[in-house]
Amino acid sequence: MNFWETKKLSEMTTEEWESLCDNCGKCCLHKLEDEDTGDIYFTSVVCNLIDLDTCRCTRYTERTQLVPECLDLKQHDFAEYNWLPATCAYRLLSDGEQLPAWHPLLSKSADSVQDAGVSISSYAMKESEIDDLEDHIIEWLD
Fold first, then answer.
1. What is the DSSP string of 85-126?
2. How far apart are CA 92 and CA 58, in angstroms?
C-alpha cells in the first residue's frame, strides 16, 4: 500500500507531505476573492519566487517570511482546501479522492505533470510583469 492510501494528511511525515506536491505551481498563482460572494478567482499571475521551468519556489524554506501572503498548507485546516485546484493532491486526499495517474508518485516521472498539461509553466507570468491582476483571471478546465 502507498502511504497516501493508508495515512491521513495529518499523520504524514514531512517527507511524505512534501512528496505529495506535484509541482504544478497552481497554488502559487495569485487569487482574487469577490468580497460579496466569497468566490475565489485564480489568475495566470504567479509569485516572483517561482521558477517557471520547474514550477518550484526558488526560496521555499523562507517563502512565508519573504511573502507574507504565502500559505503553509500544513498549518491550515484540511477542510479549508476547497480553494485549491481540483487536481491538487492535498485537496484530492482531503476529499477522499485518489491521486491522478499522472501524479509523480504514481507515474514515477516528474515530467508527467507537464506531459498531462497540468503545469502552469506554459501560461503563467510573474507578478512583476503585470499591472492589474483582474486582467488575468482564468477559469479552470479541470
1. -TT-HHHHHHTTPPPPTTSHHHHS-TTHHHHTT--STTT-EE
2. 25
* Per-position b or e across 57-69, b if 16+ CB within 10 A of its CB: beeeeebeeebee
Q: pLDDT of the chain along its 142 residues, tens only?
A: 899 999 999 999 999 999 999 999 998 999 898 899 988 888 999 999 999 999 999 999 899 889 888 888 777 776 776 778 889 999 999 899 999 999 999 999 989 999 999 999 999 999 999 999 999 999 865 5
Per-residue DSSP letter, 4? H
DSSP 46: E
Q: Are 46 and 25 in contact (CB under 8 A)?
A: yes
> What would the grid cell of residue 29 be?
498563482
Q: Residue 41: which H helix or E strand, with range?
A: strand 40-46
Do residues 31 and 70 make contact, with C-beta atoms less than 8 angstroms apart?
A: no
The whole model's pTM is what?
0.85
H helices present in 33-88, as ranges: 63-66
